[in-house]
């Protein structure tokens, strides 16, 4: 649950520090005082969209900090696996919006990217606002809500994976299902391309070797001259110039004699090593010279081969890529020439994967229908508590002809608020007030299975009046027995049920306007309830407010 919230320079809120406990907490105030701004700040803290317009005028940044404790075991495990373990069972979140547009996100005091921050915030708070009513008007959201209420996401994932496997086989079948004429043309084209590559028969690395050989043969005259010059200088010598090996021989002989007369210099071994190294080097150069052959026709062969290899460049920038292209064309050609075998193989795979899908989809369908029956019964009781005793809620399933993500059927909610009227699609029959009560009833069911510890309701009583508004308060108080519940409301009948009550006030201080959030004492609560009840005679409304508090307190005490 949310234990602490600190908001600074957010909208009209200058500095707001709040501590929260369990149960039902309400926020009330005049229209425009900034009640929804507090929910907006919490939304930003939880990774919602943040822009510079949210920064208080004249300030360079806005900050929101929150501390959560009493976290669900699965959420604690998720934090541990992500590398941000809870500290003494608590989670610390921080979000800063700068006027430069830069956002700072911290978890447990460590800065992290926004995408990771958002993922870690999932599952902390369930925020329900008036806009959420609209999701019930969209049939495509109904099945997700049904699965959420039933805790079926694991089963849905298994079905989705089976559907993906089946659809992948179907795509392969479509790719093979081209006309015979097109297949024949493609086969001829592939054979022509493959034959062109195989006529050349390129070898990986061949082009580099040929270029090196071409370079050597093109400079054969200069190479021969340099080799002869090097060999002559090392071993043969020339007119008036002794060879290096002869001069080293003289030095070797002198040092050998020196070593016999005085062994303190001790360098004879070195000259011996140098002498034989030069002799070996001269032998290598001689062998290279004797083996070096220049064949003009070989240079022509290399040129011709390089031209052939260059023509293959349209299949790839390197010979390795050319050979990879050849292999892929051979594979495609094999598929085309053995298309019947491919069709048989794919047909077998299709039957196998479809059967596998149908097994898991049927298991999901059975669970969905079981959950749907439970929801219908549960909602009947919840809606009766909210003044819709005669209403009927149904979950209807429309079968899908082909295996698809989501399962073998599509769920849609049907509703009738009046006795004798058949249920119709929800979007066509429910009024705003009925939709508010229906969403509250669904949330009441969700609270029993959802691991989220905090529920927030923003004006869930919108469009509801009369005795029913009191029942909305009872329902919120009932949900708050299992969850931490925050509620923004204009209804005194709802606010009276709260265990904690905050008044939100917009005030002018000097030349600035700010929103203040005050924790109300019992006396202040009665005054606030009296204001919300309205009326010209303040004593009458104050007395009514006191009675409302007493009655609501009794209702909460004995289980609303």
TrEMBL record:
A Pfam match: SMC_N
Ranges of residues in domain RecF/RecN/SMC N-terminal: 2-511
Keyword Lipid biosynthesis annotated: no
Keywords: ATP-binding, DNA damage, DNA repair, Nucleotide-binding
GO molecular function: ATP binding
Biological processes annotated in GO: DNA recombination; DNA repair; SOS response
Family: Belongs to the RecN family.
Function as written in the Swiss-Prot or TrEMBL entry: May be involved in recombinational repair of damaged DNA.
Name listed for the protein in its UniProt record: DNA repair protein RecN
């Amino acid at each position: 649950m949310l234990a602490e919230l600190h908001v600074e320079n957010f909208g009209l809120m200058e500095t707001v520090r709040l501590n929260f406990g369990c149960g039902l907490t309400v926020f009330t105030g005049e229209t425009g005082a900034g009640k929804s701004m507090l929910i907006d700040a919490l939304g930003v803290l939880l990774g919602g969209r943040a822009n510079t317009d949210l920064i208080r005028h004249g300030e360079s940044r806005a900050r929101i900090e929150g501390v959560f404790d009493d976290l669900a075991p699965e959420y604690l495990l998720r934090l541990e696996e992500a590398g941000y373990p809870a500290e003494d069972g608590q989670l610390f979140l921080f979000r800063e919006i700068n006027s430069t547009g830069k956002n700072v996100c911290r978890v447990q005091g460590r800065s992290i990217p926004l995408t990771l921050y958002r993922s870690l915030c999932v599952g902390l708070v369930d925020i329900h606002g008036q806009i959420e009513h609209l999701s019930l008007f969209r049939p495509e959201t109904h099945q997700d809500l049904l699965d959420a209420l039933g805790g079926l996401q694991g089963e849905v994932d298994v079905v989705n994976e089976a559907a993906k496997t089946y659809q992948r086989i179907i795509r392969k079948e479509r790719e093979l299902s081209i006309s015979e004429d097109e297949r024949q043309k493609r086969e001829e084209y592939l054979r022509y391309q493959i034959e062109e590559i195989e006529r050349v028969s390129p070898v990986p690395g061949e082009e580099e070797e040929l270029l090196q050989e071409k370079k050597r043969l093109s400079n054969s005259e200069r190479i021969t001259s340099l080799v002869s010059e090097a060999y002559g200088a090392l071993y043969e010598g020339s007119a008036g110039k002794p060879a290096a090996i002869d001069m080293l021989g003289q030095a070797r002989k002198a040092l050998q004699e020196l070593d016999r007369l005085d062994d303190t210099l001790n360098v004879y071994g070195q000259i011996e090593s140098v002498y034989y190294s030069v002799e070996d080097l001269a032998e290598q150069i001689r062998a290279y010279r004797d083996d070096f052959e220049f064949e003009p026709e070989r240079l022509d062969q290399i040129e011709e081969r390089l031209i052939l290899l260059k023509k293959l460049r349209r299949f790839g920038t390197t010979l390795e890529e050319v050979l990879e292209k050849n292999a892929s064309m051979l594979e495609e050609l094999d598929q085309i020439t053995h298309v019947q075998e491919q069709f048989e193989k794919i047909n077998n795979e299709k039957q196998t994967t479809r059967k596998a899908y149908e097994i898991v989809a049927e298991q999901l369908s059975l669970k969905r229908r079981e959950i749907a029956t439970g929801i219908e019964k549960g909602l009947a009781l919840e809606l009766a508590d909210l003044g819709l005793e005669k209403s009927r809620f149904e979950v209807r399933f429309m079968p899908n002809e082909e295996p698809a993500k989501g399962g073998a059927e599509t769920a849609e909610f049907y509703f009738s608020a009046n006795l004798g009227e058949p249920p119709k699609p929800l979007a066509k029959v429910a009024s705003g007030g009925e939709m508010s009560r229906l969403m509250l009833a669904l949330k009441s069911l969700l609270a029993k299975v959802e691991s989220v510890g905090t529920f927030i309701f923003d004006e869930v009583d919108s469009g509801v009046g009369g005795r029913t508004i009191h029942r909305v308060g009872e329902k919120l108080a009932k949900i708050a027995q299992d969850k931490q519940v925050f509620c923004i409301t204009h209804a005194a009948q709802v606010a009276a049920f709260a265990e904690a009550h905050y008044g939100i006030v917009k005030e002018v201080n000097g030349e600035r306007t700010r929103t203040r959030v005050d924790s109300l004492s019992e006396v202040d609560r009665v005054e606030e309830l009296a204001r919300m009840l309205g009326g010209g005679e303040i004593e009458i409304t104050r007395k009514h407010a006191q009675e409302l508090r007493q009655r609501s307190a009794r209702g909460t005490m004995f289980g609303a």
